[in-house]
Amino acid sequence: MGKYYKRNYDKPRTEEKAEPIRESADDCVTDTVRRIIKAQDEVIEDCCVSSCESAIKQLRKRKSDLAPQHTTIPFILYCNSSCSPFIGSGVFQAPMGNCKRNNNFFGSVETPIFRAKSFAKDSDNCVKLELLLPVTEQCEVLMPALDGCKCGSISQFFPTDDPVTGFQATGICITVNLNHFLAVTCLDPITPIPADADRSSHHSQRA
Prior knowledge:
By secondary structure, this protein is an alpha+beta fold. The protein has one domain (31-88, 110-206). The protein has helices spanning 25-41, 52-61, 199-202, and strands spanning 75-79, 88-95, 104-111, 113-119, 126-136, 141-144, 164-177, 181-186, 203-206. Strand 2 (88-95) and strand 3 (104-111) form a beta hairpin. It is globular, with a radius of gyration of 25 Å.
């Protein structure tokens, strides 16, 4: 009898494709803020008294150019629940400019514009932000009257009849958890007006 040989009809092997790694919105915001801090640290020593990619490149590019060196990438955060801009708030102390015995007063500020200072110790998501106040062409620091909501429109901070031309540092910092924000958008690099500028005489309250 003839011999019969059984052929091996094994199915061809197929390589399993790995699932693409997708970055969550939380990681996206955190990583962007981390890069902003790194770029700022490269151009100035930090102390607490448009696209983000292009803003970071602009800040780093000026370090090697003859153009004036900017120190800050201002940015806006968008709340996770509402997709609206986050409005940060804080309290400052300033002289009243009179002869009273206790001539200091406490005032509050609110703004959607921030400067990233540093990440909190032993934290990947908690970051310290300094509040930056919009300054108009008439050298007025804008202080719009808000309805108490901390996530809302930013148009009242940028009036068309008195354009914003810069930002003032406040020395007021808040610590936030970046996991609570959905998105971040950056402004062009700037050098803020120092925080020790006369607050009491330049604030403009808008209804």
